[in-house]
User: What shape does this take?
Amino acid sequence: MEQFDNLVAQPALLTLARESRGWTQSDLAGEMSRQAVGEAVSQGYVSRAEAGRLTVKGERLALYAAALRYTPEMLCRATDTGGVGVGLVHHRKRASLGALALRRVHATLALTRLQVEGITAADGEDHKHRFRRIVVDDLDTPADASETLRLEWGLPAGPITNVVEVLEAAGALLVVRDLQTRDLDAVSQWPQGQRPLFLLNSTAPGDRFRFSLAHELGHIVMHTEPGDARLQEQQANQFAAEFLMPHEIVLPDLQAGVDLARLMKLKRRWGVSMAALALRAKALGALSEWQYRSLMVEMSALGYRTTEPVTFERETPRYLAEVVTRLRQQHHLDLSQTAHLAGLELEEFTEIYSCPSSTPVTSRSPDSPTGR
Assistant: This one.
């Protein structure tokens, strides 16, 4: 293990790597013991390593890496982990999501950021973006913030055909992967001096995908520090509703009548769930409270609150896959080398970041987001 003699694991990375796998310290100790021939690793050893009370290098570093399925170099990266606290990470989740699962998601987000940094740094492309903070208060509402952003990004007045394309054109980093929970659709973070990162759950229903992404966009631009969680969630929902369904354009559609057949038709046009459309209709006065509740009861009886009719093909991020292709075609790095840059084993890296060889490679400009 001489190649690792000069590498020393960072305690914070050891913790993040373990939590990203959803493991306790005892789980990790058990996996390390299984991989080590004739040697038992205790939970106490893992605890001391994560607390920085002992040095992890050489053969122990290699064992850690093998057990956690990250490269030794990834476990040795210096990083500011202060930004992975709950207050600075936004997420669209259900109340049933437990603390352990939430830590796993936050750790996955932090490591995804490092993975993305590894491959984009090798590409050397200009990483400018067009995101900015927008203050909301009693006079400037979340809907106003959404309208401002749509105007600044030059989006059309009607439905946005591809939300993922719009955000990537503005310079966002988007990654879709299995977050190992049904209780969270998306999570996002925008550290100072970096590009916004959106992590989207591949198991989330397709008809919630676009709204979840717009919801996270609202958090990113409006919320710069911890606050009233319920209020911030309401504001993010209001932002998303206006971003995807601008009131001046959607209101005539809703005033023409709102029943299940109409909601199915409008779902295809606006690219959001029937439930989101019904809630938008109530918020804009096209449905009374009683009419809305009656509609929700009808949808529940038909099972539509769990699985709605009319399915969407999920929008697919392309930017990072194009970076991987560019590294292969222009920088002559094969997938194994690029996976190493990301600190991942080849199989996991390919599942998350690679793209078919037929994918065209383009250079994205943050100056021309499109809503076509």
User: Anything to note?
Assistant: Confidence is low (pLDDT under 50) at residues 82-88, 356-369. The CA atoms of residues 223 and 232 lie 7 Å apart.
